[in-house]
Amino acid sequence: GESVGLHLPTLSVQEGDNSIINCAYSNSASDYFIWYKQESGKGPQFIIDIRSNMDKRQGQRVTVLLNKTVKHLSLQIAATQPGDSAVYFCAENRRSGYSTLTFGKGTMLLVSP
Amino acid sequence: GAVVSQHPSWVICKSGTSVKIECRSLDFQATTMFWYRQFPKQSLMLMATSNEGSKATYEQGVEKDKFLINHASLTLSTLTVTSAHPEDSSFYICSARGGGATYEQYFGPGTRLTVT
To answer: Residue B5: what pLDDT?
Structure first.
């Protein structure tokens, strides 16, 4: 049978390409979202965040898009580099005022030189 | 700024023993700290939330008597895994949040626990 949770979705890209990593969330009341990058054996590293009153936010080489209508979040990485290879997690704050984060399943990004 | 450390980075212990993991915020005061567990190729699962000076709030399904959390100061929280079993082997990660309106959490580097 299928082993749920043991296989991360993987996105393979070439160096220099733009990458788009997607995340679906379930709670329409979530008011804050963060993207984290996690390299093997390390803790998550903050990339970019967005509040629910926004639909787009840009950082250095990264853009987060929020579509509340379909409860969808995406992370766009421009000019992807081999150092971007990692697992990317979206996280949402589901309980307003409590600041507890719920993490998505994660996507592994593999960047080939 | 906003650096969180964990100690040890990895630990091996025998079944039935207890092991303590420390989480420190190095350059800010953490009013709230969080403990997560992560199994291989899986996401982070929140175990508990602790506020300085008060009892931790555990997530559903997490045994509070097995995973003892102490948040004794604004810069230190500890997680003690009591009577460890091989199924407790995992990657334990803490995070810390300062005061104010921000929801951002700063994560430690994680502790790899192996129970033999």
So the answer is: 97
Nearest to A50 by CA among A26, A34, A69: A34
| B24 reaches A (C-beta below 8 A) | no
Q: Parallel, antiparallel, or unpaired for β B111-115 and B10-13?
A: parallel
Check CB contact under 8 Å for A99 and B97. yes
First vs last Cα of chain B: how many Å apart?
Answer: 37
B17: which DSSP letter?
-
Cα distances from A35 to residues A46, B14, B61, B67, B105, in angstroms, run 6, 36, 26, 28, 11
Residue of B nearest to A99 (CA): B103
Q: The tokens of A99 are what? A: 């600041």
Tell me what the pLDDT averaged over chain A comes to.
90
Return all residues near A33 (Cβ < 8 A) that are at least 6 apart. Answer: A25, A49, A50, A51, A52, A64, A66, A73, A90, A91, A92, A93
User: What confidence tens digit (pLDDT) does each residue in B63-79 have?
Assistant: 999 999 998 888 999 99
State how far the Cα of B38 lies from the Cα of B40, in Å rounded to an integer. Answer: 7
Instruction: Read off the tokens for B111.
Output: 């502790």
Residue A104 contacts residue A90 (beta carbons within 8 Å): yes
Dist CA A101 CA B59 (whole Å)? 12
Q: How far is residue B51's CA from residue B16's CA, in Å, rounded to a whole number?
A: 29
Among positive and negative, which fits the CA dihedral A21, B43, A102, A98? negative
- Judged by CB atoms closer than 8 Å, whether chains meet at A93 and B110 is answered as no
